[in-house]
Fold this sequence. Notes:
- It contains 3 helices and 21 strands.
- It has helices at residues 3-21, 113-118, 165-168; strands at residues 46-47, 69-77, 84-96, 144-150, 154-157, 163-164, 173-178, 183-192, 211-222, 232-240, 247-257, 259-260, 263-269, 277-283, 298-304, 311-318, 337-342, 346-347, 356-357, 367-368, 375-376.
- Mean pLDDT is 82; it is low at 1-22.
Amino acid sequence: MNKKILASIFVIGILALAMGWGTYSFFSDTEKSTGNVFTAGTIDIAVDNQNPWTATYSAALSDVKPSENRWITFVITNPGKNPVDVWKRIVVKGCDGGSYAYWGDAARGASSEPEYTEGGGQFDANGIPTGNGYVERCNLAPYIIYDLKIPGVRWIVKPEQQIRIDNIDGFWIYLGEIDAGSKMTVEQSYHLSSWQDAPILDVTNWAQGDTMKFDIELYAEQVSGVGPIGAEDTLKLVKKDPVTWVPSEDAGHLKYKTAANEFTYTFDATGLTAITQYSLIYYADPWPGDGTDHSTGALIGTFTSDINGAIVSTPGNVNLGTDLPNSKDKNFGVGAKIWLVLSSDYSTTTLGAQGHMTAWNPSGYLFETHLINYHDTGP
């Protein structure tokens, strides 16, 4: 036989042997698990043994005078079988200037004669308010200093940071993790400012009888979640009266990733001065915006407004090399301030300092509506 024929016979032999094995049985056993049910876990919290939470704290926060402090305390319970991360935020719902019933509608918006007088209200020959000339000023949020702590564990917002309610309006603050079946006590204070705290936060007669309405919200999520903000957030920037700090309509929008190896964002703005250069900055307290030792603060981006005073939607990314806020920011542990300022009022070249303010023209700036948090995941 030649080699080709031998090869053919060998192949046929293997096939025949394989087919022969296929006619035999193997030892075997089959088991089956029946009645399986996939059950989703539950995440639920109770506050002061209420679920849903219906308590209000208006009584504890009434009749507050400048320099006075009010504390409120509640206990969050995790009755479930899973640990949870918990966040808290305050949402301001409005301000009411009140009215003094004796005066009726003539002095609507003023709660006392001193408030009416300070607001420019006029009186007739008999000393009765006419209702003319009075300009109501009702914006308590920038004048209430807020503190927050988990007693015996840690301060979250420290008194010396002087965080105002308008800084954190709508801003989620992380409280911590609560194990299954455990509790967390939360204490927070509301301090009505005076000149002793800071000259620009001096509350005078204009605030008599005014009320600030607000909600307190809690958010609980499984510990492996992304939190109430998620992968992206949008910050509104507004013009603010440099005396009263009353905000105007939204003028800018910063959409950004809350965690990335670079600060990645899209920004737009309107109502600016035409054909003017602006800088979007991370302002690290205290003044001039480069932190407690001049080692932080950063330029995020530079833009030139168009002939309509607008900055069109502009994407960008910058390697900040730090979380926001930085540990050298006076607001560290709470959040970071983002401003849009005139580029002529900002410097990134001063030796021995990071980006910082060199002049103060706030009527031309846009300010954050609340602080932000950003986690730099880069090396």
